Amino acid sequence: MTIRILPQVTVNRIAAGEVIERPASAVKELVENAIDAGGTSIEVNIESGGRNFIAITDNGSGMAKDDLVLCVERHATSKLPDDDLFAIRHFGFRGEALPSIGAVGRLSLTSRAKGAADAWRIRVDGGEKHEPEPASIAQGTHVELRDLFFATPARLKFLKAERTEQNHVLDTIHRLAMAHPEVAFTVTAEGKQVLKLAQENIVSSQRSVVGGNTTDHLLNRLTAIIGRDFTENALQVRAGREGSRIEGYASVPTYHRNSAAEQYLFVNNRPVRDKFILGAIRGAYQDFLERNRHPVVVLFITVPPTEVDVNVHPAKSEVRFRDANLVRSLIVSGLKNTLASAGHRASTTVAESTLAAFQPGNFQPRSAPYSSGRHSGYAYIPQQYQNALAEPVVPFLSLHPGAAHPAETGYPPAEETTMDFPLGAARAQLHGTYIIAQTRDGMVMVDQHAAHERLVYENMKRALERGSAAATQPLLIPEIVQLPADAVELLMNRREDLRKYGLVFEESGDNTVVVREIPALLGDTDIQGLIQDLADDLRESGESLSLQEALEHVAGTMACHGSVRAGRKLNVHEMNALLRQMEATPHSGQCNHGRPTYVELKLADIEKLFGRR
């Protein structure tokens, strides 16, 4: 087979296949160029999802005639002052974007350099470059791209519906706008303005990829893009170590999504979609969310340019860190510390969803109301219930049979419990599952099982963090549990680790284990079910997670077995004790599976339900 040199046009089209995947890829490259040029106002106009027409206009430094000619040549760039690929401070350092776009579409660039008297235009059609010609434009650059992929029609078959491609373009702009709140963005699609972001007034002399953000301005930009629901339920993240730092915002665990699409990641202000960073975020939240749920996160990771390789992928969407363990540790510890600072806080959207679920009453009396007499205004009431109406109202909460009277226990009577606590004072228990508490300005409903499950789990974790094994409860009669052979092997491999949690067992032969001690925190629990669930957890995730993550997952299973069950009746003092423990325990706003443990309704919200507001 004869070896030959490929024509330049073919080379450019191959490069375009790596860099320009869809219209959003072209928009990304062109907008990054506008940001690198110092533009503070960028306008994007697309038609047919960007397939037929893309126009980008900026007010940046612009280009002179000679630079305009060079910019459409392969590997021509102004962003790399020397040959050091480990000190990159700009976006478009590869010099591939413009010639690649021109190789597969009809590209036109019009630019006027700062202080120049004339503007110039150059066109590239399917890789064929035309001579520059005079043009008319204010300072900056205007780029038009028509008929994307007309030179490689097979690529058109891989594009999605116009609305889908438009959404990809918007997502691209959103990510770049988050990294640069000092830049105003306007996006027009099919002649209709779909996005307008005002310029945030940030005083900064450095407009490079390593530039910093002022947090308040970033929060304003995030509110405009993601929405106020996120910023009201977001926690500020700030952490640093050994010259690296992370900052941004992360949602409380009860504010989550069914995909990681709303996790916005930036490395040295460069938007990335990096699996390594996504894995670190998942590790930080794995105590609080089920594996199919994802938090909303905006995270800026800043490391010295020499400590990260941004040249891993042609589209620069992935990076490689010199010290990956340091970065992962920084992300996990920073997010965990941030989540711990939230205490028992839960998402405000939980209450909104609860209010939306309420239905107005539609009960209809069976007969017309009396028009006169003692019961005037009421529907007909049988005699036995009429007598009850005249009796004084009595509290419907009572202690368990045989329980001590409040005066004998040292607890204050229920009516004296203060409502000044964040979660209020317990007033009732519904269906043996939900605690109703009254606060000064509303009410709180608590899922007793979910709340106690989190408390037990946090107690287990704290004991291990102190380096002490959990207290155990010896069984008078050891429990014999029969399991499949592979389950027994998994349990025996982790026997010493599980001992730290207070679970003591040994193999007995014939595919059985003998449980001799259980964690004291679990109390009276279903040991057979506990052991079987632990074996299932180890089988499902023990190999895919780190040892610590796998053990924390196991601790969550044990906590579930040791928590107060739904259906158990609690007296008012037990309910108040649970509320006070929740207020003192981090992460108590959600159970181990990410579900909220309580819902709070303000009095104003309740009044709206009854038309009082």
Q: How would you describe what is shown here?
A:
- The structure is a single chain.
- The protein has 613 residues and is an alpha+beta fold.
- Among the domains are: 8-80 and 89-197, Heat Shock Protein 90 (2-Layer Sandwich), CATH 3.30.565.10; 215-342, Ribosomal Protein S5, domain 2 (2-Layer Sandwich), CATH 3.30.230.10; 460-562, 2-Layer Sandwich (Ribosomal Protein S8, Chain: A, domain 1).
- The chain is 34% helix and 22% strand.
- The strands form six sheets. Strands 1, 2, 3, 4, 5, 6, 7, 8 and 9 form a nine-stranded mixed β-sheet that branches. Strands 10-11-16-13-14 form a five-stranded mixed β-sheet.
- α13 packs across α18 (572-584) and α14 crosses α16 (527-541).
- It is elongated, with a radius of gyration of 32 Å.
List the helices and strands and how they pair.
Blueprint: H1 8-19, H2 23-36, E1 41-47, E2 53-58, H3 65-70, H4 97-104, E3 106-112, E4 119-125, E5 128-129, E6 133-135, E7 140-146, H5 162-179, E8 184-189, E9 192-197, H6 215-225, H7 228-232, E10 234-241, E11 244-251, E12 256-257, E13 263-267, E14 270-272, H8 275-285, E15 294-295, E16 297-302, E17 308-309, E18 320-321, H9 324-340, H10 348-357, H11 383-389, H12 406-409, E19 425-430, E20 434-439, E21 442-447, H13 448-465, E22 472-482, H14 485-493, H15 495-500, E23 504-509, E24 512-519, H16 527-541, H17 547-562, H18 572-584, E25 598-602, H19 603-609
Q: What is the CATH architecture descriptor of one domain?
A: 2-Layer Sandwich
Q: Determine the oligomeric state from the structure.
A: single chain
Arithmetic mean of pLDDT: 79
Radius of gyration: 32 Å
Helix share bin: 25-40%
| Residue runs with pLDDT of under 50 for 5 or more positions | 204-214, 363-381, 384-411, 543-547
Number of helices: 19
β-strand percent reads 15-25%
Note the main sheet: 9 strands, mixed
CATH fold annotation of one domain: Heat Shock Protein 90
